[in-house]
Amino acid sequence: MENQMEHNHQSGSVSVVDQVINGIINQIISGELKPGDKLPTEPELSAQFGASRNSVREAVKILQGYGVIYIKRADGTYVSESYNSRMLDPVLFSLILQKNSRNDFVGLREMIDIGVLNVIIQRKDVAAFLPRIYMTFGEMSAELHSDAPDVNKVLELDNRFHFEIAAAAQNPMIETIVEYINRLTLPSRTEATRKAIEKGNIDNFIDLHRQLISIIENRKVGEIVKAVNDHYIYWK
């Protein structure tokens, strides 16, 4: 009976499990289910979505894995009350599977960086986070000016530099996205950094990072877009 009910409820290429997942998420988005609310029981969800209990169980398991809901043993299933970085995993996994070109990732990161800079220069306490950015910048500059710059070390410091900027936005979702984009683009950025070092473009490479700091420190809103576009000249 369950299998027949589920077969009748199947629509297009969307699996029954995905229909249950989408149904629960839509209820959270609409406010029908609020953070901290207890989900209906498994039989109730099965009846509500016209799905077998196995499909409901699988959907709940997936949503739990993404941090959207959590289970209290011997009590029930609840909507998460706080942000979890795993919530962005489905979106970011899709970026990997799409096999995007380097230009796609450059454009995505530029958009994020422009938005982040616009956010953080509005903060009144720029002095609270700027020293950490300066410190990382200094370490990166020192490594680049060493006798034999280590590309991997430079990339590690570059990642930290941009993550410090992202962290200043005080938005964990932004931090998660920046971290994922850094990981996805590491191979191409490693190649770009190596070429910049080999071609003797070290001083310009450093100046591009110093320019971002200047924009933050002096709140140069009108120069953000150009600075970010210039920043990826070697990567492009």
So how many helices? Answer: 12
Total individual domains: 2
The end-to-end distance, rounded to whole angstroms, is: 57 Å
Number of strands: 2
The ordered H/E elements are HHHHEEHHHHHHHH
Q: Give the amount of beta strand, in percent.
A: under 5%
Summary, kept brief:
The protein has about 240 residues and is mostly helical. It has helices spanning about 1-10, 15-30, 40-50, 55-65, 90-95, 100-120, 125-145, 150-165, 170-185, 185-200, 200-220, 225-230; strands at about 70, 75-80. The chain has 2 domains: about 1-80, Orthogonal Bundle (Arc Repressor Mutant, subunit A), CATH 1.10.10; about 90-230, Four Helix Bundle (Hemerythrin (Met), subunit A).
Q: Mind explaining what this structure looks like?
A:
The protein has 236 residues and is mainly α. The chain has twelve helices and two strands, in the order ααααββαααααααα. The protein has helices spanning 2-9, 16-30, 42-49, 53-65, 89-97, 102-120, 126-144, 151-167, 172-184, 186-198, 202-218, 224-231; strands at 69-72, 76-79. A two-stranded antiparallel sheet has the order 1-2. The termini are far apart. Mean pLDDT is 88; it is low at 1-5.
Secondary-structure blueprint of this entry?
Blueprint: H1 2-9, H2 16-30, H3 42-49, H4 53-65, E1 69-72, E2 76-79, H5 89-97, H6 102-120, H7 126-144, H8 151-167, H9 172-184, H10 186-198, H11 202-218, H12 224-231
Antiparallel strand pairs: 1-2
Helix pairs in contact: 2-4, 3-4, 6-9, 6-12, 7-8, 7-11, 8-9, 8-10, 11-12
